[in-house]
Design goal:
Blueprint lengths: L1 H12 L9 E3 L6 H11 L5 E5 H8 L8 H15 L3 E5 L3 E6 L6 H17 L5 H9 L4 H13 L4 E5 L14 H15 L1
Parallel strand pairs: 1-2, 2-3
Antiparallel strand pairs: 3-4, 4-5
Length: about 190
């Protein structure tokens, strides 16, 4: 079934315009080998592989401190090298970053993803464009800002890192669906960039 679906996706991608930008959102695979198969098969047609902090750590086979720039950079470089996908995007509770070929065009996208997920986190299921814009204007968490500055210093010019908003004041957050919300905020930014 998986082989059939992968072949169908590759066939569909042949009909995209030459300048199309493709994003694959990673997921939790029941059979770990399936993940590597999907990445290998779709790498030639995927521009950006997006994953959350848990999927990153599952990929490298160990837990890391997501505020340790060296550990995160090593992990992202491992995924970049082993997956064969041009750009790796990781979204976490503290930051969102892109590493690789398309990282330089991702700042607006990462900010949009963070704002959308942050708005859902603080407002729940019902929010307005004004709520989204308010989240967009909020400051980043201090430790997240520091992390982004530090990881940029460690890497070459192939990284873009954006801190998450400081939402520690939220008493009753919505935590379900934040990854999907991030993706929903990410994609319009790609259109602008």
């Amino acid at each position: 079934v998986l082989e059939d679906r992968v072949e169908k996706i590759k066939a569909l991608w042949k009909h995209l315009p030459g300048d199309a930008l493709t994003v694959m959102e990673d997921g939790c695979y029941v059979v770990k080998e399936f993940r590597y198969y999907v990445h290998k098969q779709l790498a030639p047609v995927t521009d950006i592989l997006s994953m959350n902090e848990d999927e990153l750590q599952e990929y490298i086979g160990k837990r890391i401190d997501i505020l340790d720039p060296k550990a995160v950079l090593d992990a992202v470089e491992t995924v970049h090298k082993n997956s064969g996908i041009k750009t790796i995007l990781v979204h976490s509770a503290a930051w969102a970053l892109a590493y690789g070929e398309k990282a330089h065009i991702m700042k607006n996208s990462l900010n949009g993803g963070i704002a959308m997920a942050g708005t859902r986190f603080r407002m729940g299921d019902v929010f307005t464009p004004e709520d989204y814009n308010e989240t967009m204007q909020m400051p980043g968490r201090a430790e997240s800002v520091r992390f982004c500055e530090d990881i940029k210093e460690l890497s070459d010019n192939h990284i873009c890192c954006v801190p998450c908003k400081d939402l520690r004041y939220v008493e009753h957050p919505t935590v379900v669906g934040l990854g999907d919300s991030f993706a929903g905020g990410l994609l319009p930014g790609l259109l602008k960039e």
